[in-house]
User: What shape does this take?
Amino acid sequence: MKKSTKKLAAILMCAALAGMSVAGCSNGEPETKAPETTKAAETTKAETKAETKAETKTETKAAVKSESAVNMADANVKKKDPSKHYKFGYTCMDGTNPFFVTIEKTMREMIEAQGDELVSVDPANDVTLQITQVEDLVSQKIDAMFMNPAEAEGILPALDQLKEAKIPTVGFDTEVADMSYLISYTGSDNYNAGFVCGEDLVKKCPNGGDIIVLDSPTMNSVTDRTNGFWMPLKTTTSILLPSRMQREI
Assistant: This one.
């Protein structure tokens, strides 16, 4: 597989998740102020500030979309060879989850805007089905794979198939048990996300109490969040160590 294909796949995933972050966090206000425009010597400082403010306001209005802070179809993702067309595979643990629905939609917009193809599959949290679906994607001769595993360990046979077929794999949101299979990975800091939730619980429940945690130990992302969640609780004696109840998600 050419280096340019690997780079394109990694850039596409990073751009998609970055765009989602902007869309999700945007409140319609610019996060940073635009630098003041340098004017000719005869322009007064007051005039410069007024013009810069007007320009920034205009640019902000133009940038804000009605439904999303960004239009990923217009993302600045360029192929080294515009005449070359690629077929990408996409799999996530649960295609009905709104988070993954948004990722898939964003990826599709970006890829199809380049004249390429995205083939998506949904294993519905069944790693055995996910392996079968990946095998089918390999048979379709995809050029690269976007992978979010249903199980970190269980997905390894599918990663073996991709490696044997020399298909570069980009991971997202959830790590796999052996990260050496991936050429790139983009994901949240799940441990810190759990830690923040634990801190918030301690602050909001100063008198303590009993809690139950619904866990899913086969998913690295959930395990990381759970481990992060425990840490702030260990610093206080007011909250009893929680019971852990496993469930399939």
Remarks:
- Strands lie at 87-91, 117-121, 144-147, 169-172, 184-186, 212-215, 243-246.
- The radius of gyration is 23 Å.
- The helical segments are 3-25, 45-63, 98-113, 127-139, 156-164, 190-204, 220-233.
